[in-house]
Amino acid sequence: MSLSMYDASVPVIKQMLASLSDVLAKAEAHALEKKIDPVALLQARLSPDMFPLTRQVQVACDFGKSIPARLAGLDVPAYDDSEQTFADLQARIARTLAFIDGIDPAGFDGSEDRQIVLRPGTPKERSLGGRAYLLGYGLPQFFFHVTTAYALLRHNGVGIGKKDYMGAY
Description:
Layout: H1 5-33, H2 38-42, H3 53-71, H4 86-101, E1 115-118, E2 126-129, H5 130-155, H6 162-166
Antiparallel strand pairs: 1-2
Helix pairs in contact: 1-3, 1-4, 1-5, 3-4, 3-5
């Protein structure tokens, strides 16, 4: 029995976005309990040349919606990247999950061979087959940003661990 492109992407993305939501809730509670300005966590970086937490969550959501949309042959919805609070980030995750839930699994049929064009019309344009896009580009990018968001919060003292990162599976 083969693994469908839907099964290799959507459940994993939903699991990790749900865990990211839970980790952010713990971070907000941590800030309140320790009397830390939430902005200190939201703008935290692991290195000066890396995105802050807020942008890590935004990009994780961007990949969370773009991977299934592209595989299903749909337009990727645009978000305005205006989130500034934990509540804003939670709303973005919820909107992303709602979008994913609205995608018909049948749209993934044949997506392993569908050509996915990244950065069309730019010097960085690249075309990949669906399987290569999912496994070699989309999921690694998604996990990078989810993991970095987790690491930023862990580094800043939020009491989270591997179980929180993994979420319910």
